[in-house]
Amino acid sequence: DAGVTQSPTHLIKTRGQHVTLRCSPISGHKSVSWYQQVLGQGPQFIFQYYEKEERGRGNFPDRFSARQFPNYSSELNVNALLLGDSALYLCASSLMTGVYNEQFFGPGTRLTVL
Amino acid sequence: KNQVEQSPQSLIILEGKNCTLQCNYTVSPFSNLRWYKQDTGRGPVSLTIMTFSENTKSNGRYTATLDADTKQSSLHITASQLSDSASYICVVSGKNTGNQFYFGTGTSLTVIP
Q1: Kind of pairing, strands B86-94 and B101-103?
Q2: B45 vs A41: CB contact, 8 Å cut-off?
Q3: What is the pLDDT of residues A47-106, one digit of tens each?
Q4: 3-state secondary structure B42-59
């Protein structure tokens, strides 16, 4: 059974551009969460979606947005990229929402903003 | 402010030796605490999860302890192997923090032959 998959694996953008990152959860999982991990730091929570609805949002600017599709896959969009957006973006899936549910992480998308 | 702090920031040990990593948190009221292992450039993989009523949990050579009164947890690695080289992240969630998990900055462990 495939785990959480993310695409692309690596991405290079320039300041001001827009980026879309994609995530496919484990089959049967209905919740997807997005995290930003800057080099040398722990992941920071961005969004959680469950059944296509936003269930949680971290302290990120409105340039960050996300959505979840009927098949439970998800996209993270970042507008007007800044140098500080360079990070590993992690997607995690779980069966349901809630802090007791085990989260399974994908390999991440490495975004570099020049 | 809900925070998770880990120590040491980095650690180098000889293969076969034991080590203990520390995690202190301020998340309250507490729900559960997890330890993850993250290899370089990869997503974190869960090692253990403990709720308020549990004070120890083992997963092979990994043993986590929790003192909910002092808001401290430790991860003990026994008979370390080269493959244990990774970042170990402590993650805490609270009862009233919605669906948010609070991640520590991790301890970078290097096991050398």
Answers
A1: antiparallel
A2: no
A3: 999 999 998 888 899 999 999 999 999 999 999 999 999 999 999 999 876 667 788 999
A4: CCCEEEEEEECCCCEEEE
Kindly report the nearest CA distance between residue A79 and chain B, in angstroms: 23
The minimum CA-CA distance between A107 and chain B, rounded to whole Å, is 5
Distance to chain B for A43, nearest Cα, Å: 6
Between B32, B51, B100, which is nearest A45 by CB? B100
pLDDT in tens, B72-113: 999 999 999 999 999 999 999 887 656 678 899 999 999 999
CA distances in angstroms from B34 to A52, A74, B8, B9, B92, listed in the order given: 26, 25, 17, 18, 6
Question: B17: Cβ–Cβ under 8 A, 6 or more apart, which residues?
Answer: B79, B80
* % of chain B with per-residue pLDDT over 70: 96
Q: Is the CB of residue A70 less than 8 Å from the CB of residue A12?
A: no
Nearest to A42 among B45, B95, B106 (CB): B106
Q: Are A111 and A86 in contact (CB under 8 A)?
A: yes
At B61-74, the pLDDT tens digits run: 999 999 989 999 99
The interface residues of chain A toward chain B in range 58-77, judged by CB-CB distance below 8 A, are 58
Neighbours of B10 (CB within 10 A): 11
Report yes or no: B113 at the A interface, CB cutoff 8 Å: no
